[in-house]
Amino acid sequence: MTTVHTTNEVNLSAPTPNQDADLDLMALTMAALRFVNPWSVSTEQKQWTEVVPGSPEAKDRTITLAEVAHHDTPDDCWIVIYDRVYDISTFLDEHPGGGDIMLEYAGRDASTAFRSSGHSRMAVKALDRFLVGELPLQERLYRRPGGIKLSDIPE
User: Fold this and answer.
1) Which CATH number fits domain 56-139: 3.30.200.20, 3.30.300.130, 3.10.330.20, 3.10.120.10?
2) What pLDDT shows up at residue 154?
3) Element (H, E) at 146
4) Of 5, 20, 117, 132, which sees the most CB atoms within 10 A?
5) Which residue has the higher pLDDT, 8 or 127?
6) Which pLDDT score, from 0 to 100, does residue 140 have?
């Protein structure tokens, strides 16, 4: 007759590698939930107040480059010139050089192209009627302390 000896001792204190990974994932999830309450997320969408180009409110509005980048179509064309944001959608057909050249810079900074094409002082003043806002201080190149200094940048 053969006898089989089995050990009745089972060590439950040492987790298997899979259990250890699950514990870490659970611990991280619980720690994250302490900082963020997923049930308190607001479903209200932020309503943007539309600023009429050239209005006095436009000078006080701050618009980031990321927001400007969303306006890059012929129907909704914004550009940045000397750290100011302009909505030139209605001007594309009127531009003496054609709308295509302006669409190349739609949603981007066009300061260098504007300066290098030799625009007159009248053209610089005409920009005021298209102004919708300014870039935040940390995204500016010209109108900030230590920024690029040019003598003919409009105030």
Assistant:
1) 3.10.120.10
2) 58
3) none
4) 132
5) 127
6) 86
